[in-house]
Design a protein that fits this description.
Distance between the termini: 19 Å
Shape: elongated
Helix content: over 70%
Strand content: under 5%
Number of helices: 10
Radius of gyration: 18 Å
């Protein structure tokens, strides 16, 4: 079967699962709401990150979206039915990853620009400039998409939404914030921290805005490669 109809079938799956629409809505709601709260009580040390502070919460929703989109295939024998229609496992998994990436990027970019507008309004005269703000909004969208893909790849390896979230959410909330602060520059290369460099006005580490997103993209790519290998090698 050609790639286009496989992608269309995977999009239909995503479009018809209410939980996935809820996760996409939560990306926008959480990022915008927590960013607005942070911007309303921000200092002038890093106005750009004050605008996009809520991405720390929005990325949890992005992870839930990527995880649920893939882990739903491993419930009730759904994957066996999918592979009966699309025997080429690599093509199916590429279509699944694309079907995750496109809505995550669209919602991520929407979230980035809505958050920028809300944050600039809240900060007033201390708001970041438009050029810096647009860079942050684009970085926000790319980061959210990459985190969704990172979760999708890991979900294909673990074959369980619960297991995937049990790994990733503590990783984001504990490892990145607690252990990361104690590990020096190594923490800058964690997927969530690397991608968020694009949301800062200034940066002191080895990574800049685009090199940080590239590191997060490497994490997502590695997870997707591992997920694709798992799908090809393991029984449905």
């Amino acid at each position: 079967m050609p790639f286009a109809p496989v992608l269309h079938a995977e999009w239909i799956k995503i479009r018809t699962l209410r939980s996935l629409w809820g996760a996409l809505a939560a990306i926008l709601a959480c990022t915008t709401a927590f960013s607005a709260l942070a911007a309303a009580d921000a200092d002038d040390s890093d106005p750009l990150f004050s605008v996009f502070f809520g991405i720390s919460f929005g990325q949890v929703a992005a992870i839930a979206f990527g995880t649920t989109a893939v882990s739903s295939e491993f419930r009730g024998g759904a994957l066996r039915l999918t592979l009966a229609a699309v025997p080429d496992r690599g093509r199916w998994f590429a279509a699944k990853a694309t079907a995750v990436a496109l809505p995550a990027l669209a919602v991520g970019l929407l979230t980035g620009f809505v958050t920028l507008l809300v944050g600039r309004s809240a900060l007033g005269a201390s708001a970041p400039g438009w050029a810096e703000g647009v860079r942050g909004a684009v970085g926000c969208g790319l980061h959210l998409m990459l985190m969704a893909l990172f979760a999708a790849g890991l979900a294909a390896v673990l074959r369980s939404g619960v297991a995937t979230l049990a790994v990733l959410i503590p990783f984001l909330l504990i490892v990145s914030f607690v252990v990361g602060d104690l590990s020096g520059g190594v923490a800058d290369f964690l997927p969530d921290r690397a991608g968020q460099v694009a949301l800062h006005s200034t940066w002191d580490g080895a990574l800049g805005p685009w090199s940080g997103l590239a590191v997060t993209a490497l994490w997502a790519s590695a997870a997707l490669v591992a997920g694709g290998w798992s799908v090809r090698r393991r029984d449905a």
